[in-house]
Amino acid sequence: MPVPADFRADEPAPSEPSGGSRPSSTLQDGEQSGSTPSGPAPQASESPSSDLPPKTSPDPATSLPADPDPGSTSPETPRPTSTAGSHNPTPSRPAPDVPEINLADPAVITDPFTTYGRAREQGPVARLSGPGFGPVWVLTRHAEARAMLTDPRFALGAGTFQPLDVPEHCRPYMRTMQEMEGEPHARLRRLTAPAFAARRALAFRPRIDRVVARLLDALPAHEPVDLITAFAQPLPMEVICELAGVPEADRPSWHEYGSNVVRGSGEGFATAVPGIIDGARDLVAHPDSELLRHLTEDAGLTGQETVALVWQLVLAGQTPANFLANAVDALITYPDQLDVLRAEPHQWPNAVDELMRWCGSQLLTIPRRATQDVELYGVTVREGEQVTVSIAAANRDPRVFPEPDRLDVRRAAGGHLGFAYGPHFCLGASFARVQIEVALTALFDRFRTLRTLEARRAPDPGTWRLATLQVSG
Fold first, then answer.
1. Where are the alpha helices (DSSP H) in 231-347?
2. CA triplet 215, 267, 132: central angle to 5 degrees?
3. H or E stretch including 450?
């Protein structure tokens, strides 16, 4: 999903440092695995090891992993408490020992895992700042993050995805479930969740297989290709078109609209929004897909609610594209992990979760606003202040994941927060898992000697993504 405006810097982000070799996947003598959190970026000077430990747990099942109970919280973690007394409108100040993280800092942009990891080990709460937006509280530890994401005193507000430069008739359709709380959200979630259940995702897999095969057929066999533009980006939108029943003749326009929606503003965005909304209205009026028929006829969604769901799918489409590119780069960088998957293909579903934990593209959750003063692990969060979760830090919390900075495709990593947690746990998580598994297995089966020629990261403070992934196989 596009990074909320709260996390977009107004000034250009610094460019990446040049040079540097890709890291070895083995630790040198005397190093401690996990001692210094680091990202999977090939540009980083330090990198986690991918040496495999002896296998100590049974093989995961080949079916989709069960989603965590979105309503549960860690029993060891006390929930934040309300602050007694009248509301103080003065913005709170961080305690002296609360880390401050500047999102415009080149070190944060090029290696967020180290910065967030250090903050996590100082305490569960840090403070984000940057040009163009006010300070935001961030939770860095896994248990505390899950507790906040299930706490009704922190709410997503209307207007999170309501840009100004769109036609007025589109606005009612742009309020998605992600902007709802309480019973309105629970009602829509209850009605739509069955359509995105794991069994439906598995039943849809043959159609994803065909989409992936078509895209791979178009790739040159022995020539360099940018896997971002040729494979990772078009795949999610093509799957969305399959789900929604978009006619073949209209799909090129939907791909263009999807690319412009990701930008979040500008002339292309202003054109893309009505293109998607009006196209979705036509699809809902004459449903030609199992998904839309189920939502309108069986689940009982209104036309407006169904169009809004299609819009939400388009908004979310960039997330699997970014993650797929990260996962491909990780498996090429650490061929020992790819060797495990080729020798033990039943590990692929488990590997998707481990890759999501280790190199998922979303660094931060969509920020919530405190609906009242809350005492948050020693910090007073005032009503109206924003709180987010550092997915990058929580997914590498050593309290939950042993040797967290090491990629291990045999790891049971189902508890990661890559799909968020709580009432707003990703509705399409099961479809995303299947899509990524199909894409990775097919890609590495088709191109047995795939190698990276260039992997350049985008300077984005909210998303760990590649701008270029040029490969040859």
1. 234-244, 251-263, 267-285, 290-293, 303-316, 318-333, 335-343
2. 100
3. none
Structural domain includes residue 283:
yes
Which residues, at least 6 apart from 330, have a Cβ–Cβ distance to it below 8 Å? Answer: 40, 337, 355, 358, 359, 407
Amino acid at 192: T
**pLDDT, tens digit (0-9, with 9 covering 90-100), for 424-466:** 999 999 999 999 999 999 999 999 999 999 999 999 999 999 9
Give the span between the Cα atoms of 79 and 88, in whole angstroms.
22
End-to-end CA distance of the chain: 30
Q: Is residue 252 part of a domain?
A: yes
Angular region, 93: left φ>0, alpha ψ -120 to 50, beta rest: beta
Q: Minimal CA–CA distance to 198: which of 444, 468, 456, 425?
A: 425
Question: How far from 385 is each of 99, 116, 128, 371, 375, CA to CA, in Å?
Answer: 17, 20, 12, 8, 12
Q: Are 87 and 159 in contact (CB under 8 A)?
A: no
Number of folded domains that form the chain: 1
The amino acid present at 159, given as its one-letter code, is G
Model pLDDT, residue 405: 97
Domain of 90: which CATH number? 1.10.630.10
Within a domain: 50: no
Q: Which domain holds residue 10?
A: 5-14+58-472
**Residue 84 structure tokens:** 């007694």
- 197-251 per-position pLDDT tens digit: 999 999 999 999 999 999 999 998 889 999 999 999 999 999 999 999 999 999 9
Share of the chain above pLDDT 70, in %: 78
- Is 28 part of a structural domain of the chain? no
Contacting residues for 377 by C-beta, under 8 A, at least 6 apart? 80, 123, 124, 125, 144
pLDDT over threshold 80, residue 94: no
* pTM score over 0.90: no
- List all residues 6 or more positions away from 328 whose beta carbon is below 8 Å from its beta carbon: 227, 232, 440, 443, 450, 469, 471
pLDDT at 130 over 50: yes
Average pLDDT along the chain: 83
Q: What is residue 369's three-state secondary structure?
A: strand
CA 233, distance to chain mean position in Å, is 14
Helix (H) or strand (E) holding 127: strand 125-130
Q: Going edge to edge, which strands form the sheet with 374-376?
A: 81-82, 374-376, 379-381
Tally Cβ neighbours within 10 Å of residue 262.
20
